[in-house]
């Protein structure tokens, strides 16, 4: 009788171990599947997005602000690619990237573009691009054109997308006006889209 009970306990223990293994495997499979759908970054662009986000979020702009207009616009371009490159899936990360990008703005530009308003507008723009299957794939900056006093400059940029038009790759051309502020830091003071071809 004791042997029967012992065999029964062993079988029960064996069944419980198998059930536990099945539950663990199912949980791991569900987690990795949900990460693919609900992760912080778009799954097919995850590694590139993680590198860009690490560069952007890891920068200490208080202690190590970009020293030249070139560096300012290169940093801005990383944020731009994250925002418009259909890379981010997490709203908090999206908002954080915009917060970081705005630290490159002059005081006047930041005041003209309130964060919440800008965030909603950008989200709307990103959704419109997604609906058209258009994403930004590159952000190229031309050398700055300085004013005579070297306190302001213009930086021309070419933003390339994955889409094509009659001339080839669909591109947008933006001009950024960058000024030195009272702390001698180069800040983006204004930007505008143009039809000029900077190639």
Descriptive report:
The longest helix has 37 residues, at 2-38. The chain has helices at 2-38, 46-58, 69-84, 91-102, 107-112, 115-131, and strands spanning 136-141, 145-146, 152-165, 168-180, 186-194. The model is unreliable at 30-38 (pLDDT under 50). α2 (46-58) crosses α3 (69-84) and α3 (69-84) packs antiparallel against α4 (91-102). The chain contains six helices and five strands. Strands 1, 2, 3, 4 and 5 form a five-stranded antiparallel β-sheet that branches. The chain has 199 residues and is of the alpha+beta class.
Q: What Rg do the Cα atoms give?
A: 25 Å
Q: The biggest beta sheet, please? A: 5 strands, antiparallel
Large-scale geometry: elongated
Number of strands: 5
Poorly predicted regions: 30-38
- Distance from N terminus to C terminus (CA atoms, Å) equals 90 Å
N-to-C series of helices and strands = HHHHHHEEEEE
Number of helices: 6
Strand content: 15-25%
Fraction of residues in H or I helices: 40-55%
- Based on secondary structure, the structural category is alpha+beta
Q: State mean pLDDT (0 to 100 scale).
A: 86
């Amino acid at each position: 009788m004791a042997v029967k009970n012992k065999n029964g306990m062993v079988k029960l223990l064996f069944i419980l171990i198998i059930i536990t293994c099945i539950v663990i495997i199912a949980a791991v499979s569900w987690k990795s599947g949900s990460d693919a759908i609900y992760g912080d970054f778009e799954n097919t662009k995850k590694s590139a997005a993680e590198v860009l986000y690490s560069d952007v979020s890891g920068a200490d702009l208080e202690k190590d602000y970009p020293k030249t207009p070139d560096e300012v616009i290169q940093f801005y371009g990383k944020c731009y690619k994250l925002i418009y490159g259909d890379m981010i899936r997490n709203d908090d990360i999206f908002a954080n990237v915009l917060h970081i990008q705005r630290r490159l703005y002059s005081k006047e530009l930041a005041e003209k573009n309130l964060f919440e308003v800008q965030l909603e507008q950008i989200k709307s723009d990103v959704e419109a691009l997604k609906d058209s299957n258009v994403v930004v794939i590159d952000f190229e900056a031309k050398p700055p054109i300085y004013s005579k006093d070297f306190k302001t400059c213009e930086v021309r940029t070419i933003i390339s997308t994955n889409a094509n038009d009659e001339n080839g790759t669909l591109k947008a051309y933006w001009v950024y006006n960058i000024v030195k502020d009272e702390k001698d830091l180069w800040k983006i003071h204004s930007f505008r889209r143009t039809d000029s071809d900077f190639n």
